[in-house]
Amino acid sequence: MGGVSLLLIAVIVTALAFDFTNGFHDTANSMATSIATGALAPRVAVLIAGALNLAGAFLSTTVAKTISGGIVNDSKVSLTMIFAGLLGAILWNMLTWLAGLPSSSSHALFGGLIGAVWVAAGAGAVHFGEVVEKIVLPALISPALACVVALLATYLAYVITRHAPSGPVTRAYRTGQIGSASLVALAHGTNDAQKTMGVITLALISADVLDPGAGPPWWVILSAGLAISLGTYAGGWRIIRTMGRGLTDIQSPQGFTAETTATTVILTSSHMGFPLSTTQVCAGGILGAGLGRKLAEIRWGIAGRIAVSWVLTLPAAAAVGGSSAWLAGHGTIGLVLAAGVALAAVGGMYALSRRHPVHAKNVNEVPETQQDQPDDLMA
Amino acid sequence: MHIDWHGLVEVCVVSLVMVTLLVVVFSLGIVALTRSRRPRMDTVGRGGVAAPLAMATAVLCFALCAALGGYGIHLIVSHSP
């Protein structure tokens, strides 16, 4: 069955490609504030984050039993839909990376799947109640919670240390920051790498390569872990700049409280079984840390832009996923065409990014261009 | 659709308490550390904490933070979904 194996290979490759974009899109979550305050040199920061993501991938003992966690009817999901959904997620991740916006990779994946399933299997296969419960509600609550907690913690940190000499205080918070940032990276590896493992494993099961209920083979764990950690190491410098420099000017006490807040909120909610977006929690924490320090400037234009990208993530990824599913539904030619268009779009966005490259050496420069960045990147 | 409001409130409260505890303890640790490094005359003269006691406080504070961090790693390893 040449067609089936081609599709299966396409799914595995796109799943790993998504995993890679997930990695570089989310480097900022763990390392943006550490890079901004100078707690870690940029290259060292991405190396630590990449290594911890890889470690996290191997630590995650249980892989998701469903692709979507109940957001779509998994029994109606075909390989083609997974493929189309992944394309939607990858393209939205690339577009938001180009614009330097920290949007949620998980939401992009869910959005892509929802769109693909909606087009290919009808709206009845999408559980909209679950969408509200597992995506919309956490997206409203978690950044607000992180913001409030980080605000209070930052205020307390500055009040307690106000009479202490600033040099040792800065150094101590920087050290603390390395610890809290590392925990975010580790938690990220356990959460996000296993999503890709789950997608590949379920694709293998539905293609009868694996028995139902089988765990991921070692090469799936290894390749998913490597893809996310290489992506993390590549560093989404554009997003790191927005999170570390664009939103507000982060000092080391703020970096410490923002990362501590992010780690705590993520661990508490996943411990209690609430799904949430690491990205949104981290952005909320940074915003709160900015508000908690007197005289800290918040660039509300950038905050607003980030919020808009969050609202758009689900529908935009769904639109691309849906279109891809429609195209890929037309046999092998449609499938190849969808992959070709996606590849061309990714290549085009990469080429665009080279016009104003952001890298390890200029990541800490204040992004004055972000204020007048062309809005067509946001569309 | 079932929304676990009770659980949500719990997440909010636990997060708030844990972060506040961690940041306050860490900050107190830093203050104690900087005091322990000042000349002994200064701290004793001000009726403040003597250097060894300040150092012990700092160590205790940082140990508590490290323990909380260790518990975090434990949660990551044992409760990865």
From TrEMBL, chain A:
The keyword Transport applies. InterPro entries: Phos_transporter (IPR001204). The keyword NADP does not apply. Belongs to the inorganic phosphate transporter (PiT) (TC 2.A.20) family. It is a multi-pass membrane protein. This is Phosphate transporter. The chain crosses the membrane at residues 41-64, 76-95, 107-128, 135-158, 218-240, 302-327, 333-352. It is found in: Membrane. It comes from Streptomyces kronopolitis. Its main location: membrane. Keywords: Membrane, Phosphate transport, Transmembrane, Transmembrane helix, Transport.
From TrEMBL, chain B:
The chain crosses the membrane at residues 6-33, 53-77. Keywords: Membrane, Transmembrane, Transmembrane helix. This is Uncharacterized protein.
